[in-house]
Every structure is written in structure tokens, then in C-alpha cells.
Write a structure and sequence with these properties.
single chain; 111 residues; mainly beta; Jelly Rolls; six-stranded antiparallel sheet
């Protein structure tokens, strides 16, 4: 990956689980941004991050989002915030639903 620029066509999608693909946009030691593409009904299982904070912005489609047991339907332009040790997960409600995930610090397991 170029240090300062991301050109979408030069970076392939990576399968991360059934119906879910990810593309890293960029990262520094303190931040990582990734696009995540979901097929309809694909699930990002409920989980938490001990070492990372996360903000997820809905780029396309719609998701049922759960954060600490509270569920909401989020659509393009909506977002959710996940502090460390907060349980969260998503279910894609439409085909080709996409999130922009941002993590601090960088998720070294993603790169």
C-alpha cells in the first residue's frame, strides 16, 4: 500500500467470513480504516475489542446493528461508535451493504 494514497482499483477485496469482504484503505500505528462489504443477511457476529475503539459509518445499504444489547436499523449516512470492551455486531439487510470501519489503535491482525 502506498504510504499516502489509496487507489481503489489497486487493492483487491479479501474474504474474511461467509458473505463478508474487507479492503484496507490505509493505516498508521494509531489508526486503521477499512471498507467492509456484506452480502444480504451476512452477519458480523456480536463481539468486543479489548484493545481497540471503533467507529463504523454506513456507506451503502442497511444494517441491523447491536451495541451492548440495543438494536437499531442504520442506513447510508448513519454510524455507530464502539468503545473498548463493548459488545457489538451487525446483520446486513440489503445486498452489497457496506461499512467504513475505523479503529484506534491500528488493527495489526488486519494487515
Amino acid at each position: 500500500m502506498e504510504e499516502h494514497f489509496f487507489e481503489d482499483a489497486q487493492h483487491p477485496w479479501i474474504d474474511v467470513e461467509p458473505g463478508v469482504r474487507r479492503k484496507i484503505i490505509g493505516h498508521t500505528p494509531n489508526l486503521l480504516a477499512a471498507m467492509v462489504r456484506f452480502e444480504q443477511n451476512a452477519v458480523g457476529a456480536v463481539h468486543g475489542h479489548e484493545a481497540h475503539e471503533q467507529i463504523a459509518y454506513v456507506l451503502a445499504g442497511a444494517f441491523e446493528v447491536e451495541v451492548e444489547g440495543e438494536k437499531r436499523i442504520l442506513r447510508k449516512g448513519d454510524a455507530f461508535v464502539v468503545p473498548r470492551n463493548t459488545q457489538h455486531g451487525v446483520v446486513a439487510l440489503e445486498p452489497d451493504s457496506r461499512l467504513l470501519d475505523m479503529f484506534s489503535p491500528r488493527r495489526d491482525d488486519f494487515i
